[in-house]
Amino acid sequence: MKLPFYKIFSSLENWTAIFLEGFLVYYQVVVMTCSPPQNLSYSGFESGEDIYQDKIPYPCHEPYYKIVPAVDSGQPLSGTFTNSTQAIWKGRERSGKIPQCSPVCGQPATPIDQDQGAHGASKAKLGNFPWQALTIIYGRGGGALLGDRWILTAAHTIYPKDSFFQKSQSVNVFLGHIDIEEIIRLGAYSVRRVIVHPDYRPEEANNFEGDIALLELESSVPLSPNLLPICLPDNETFYSSGLMGYISGFGMEGGRLVNQLKYVSLPVAEREACEAWLLEKNRTEVFSSNMFCAGDRTIKQDACQGDSGGVFAVWDNTTEHWVATGIVSWGIDCSKGYGFYTKVLNYMNWLKSIMAGEA
Questions:
Q1: Catalytic center residues
Q2: Domain ranges of the chain
Q3: Pairing state of beta strands 6-9 and 23-28?
Q4: Distance of alpha carbon 94 from the chain centroid
Q5: Which in 31, 110, 145, 210 has the greatest CB count within 10 A?
């Protein structure tokens, strides 16, 4: 006759006794421990005793970062990991892959009043364009922070369309302020790599095809209300005729370099109007499908020398963030017609491969 299955708990050295199929079996309960959970950059976690079924939260440094799934995890993460029977930390989707803290883009703490800047340049307030970079290579240029360690800029700020400037030159990047003296006082960020798009041809003076580049910084920058990244485009609606965008920079105004960050608002122009204008001016510059134009011939405002590499920023009403749809590339004089911009959307595969470390 089989005896019933039941447990007898002993207080001696965590030993447990049970009757199993008529036999008295003793075994010792061992508390399983895990290795300490992996820490994340820009996050902190609170751990208990690192034992079985213990839980740890993985909070990112909000509002500058948000938690995103680990690569190939397949499901969103709650940000909480539980100690498992395999002695590893697992998330809600039962994966041991650690989530990442991703920078939040396109959401300045001090957004601009989008009704301003329609007639003439305006002085930016601290935090209006927290992605704005100042580059000093062969002179002033612009750029925009992507993530927390990449600068998007124009290739011609690195290799100008002038054979006189083809010698090696240091690349200086400044971030985090709207005043020239203050942004330089904060110090330059060290650049680890300079990556210029392979289609760019500095020897072809009238061809700005591939006028896009990335600067990888030596280390991640400390995000703050005055230092935040901008988002990248994902669809063609950002290039609709009449859509308003904003360009900002430390370039020329009235024949002089400005001491404070300025910005103007410009509409995306119809491609046919810009082509007709170039013909009218007897210009031979290449205006390819990898470029778009912006401006209004009746309004005297535009980017100018020193603004090159800065971005054309458009507000996305759907996601409620700012998107870098273009890069200040080339034009004819300043404030005398249309300006021409690198179409960032057409280079998204290249940008993603570079920033993901695949190229």
A1: 156, 211, 308
A2: 1-30, 37-104, 122-355
A3: unpaired
A4: 30
A5: 145
Report how far apart, in Å, the C-alpha atoms of 341 and of each of 110, 234, 325, 338 are: 26, 17, 9, 10
Distance between CA atoms of residues 135 and 115, nearest Å: 29
Q: Which two tokens stand for residue 63?
A: 């509002």
Q: Which CATH number fits domain 37-104: 3.30.565.10, 2.10.70.10, 3.30.70.260, 2.40.30.20?
A: 2.10.70.10
Place of tokens 């300079």: 194
Question: 143 near 175, Cβ under 8 Å?
Answer: no
Q: Are 235 and 219 in contact (CB under 8 A)?
A: no
Backbone angles phi, psi at 348, to 5 degrees: -65, -40
d(CA 194, CA 158): 9
Per-residue pLDDT tens for 84-113?
Answer: 544 444 554 444 556 678 899 999 999 998
As a whole number, the mean pLDDT across the chain is: 82
pLDDT digits (tens, 9 = 90+) for 119-173: 668 999 999 999 999 999 999 999 999 999 999 999 999 999 875 656 667 999 9
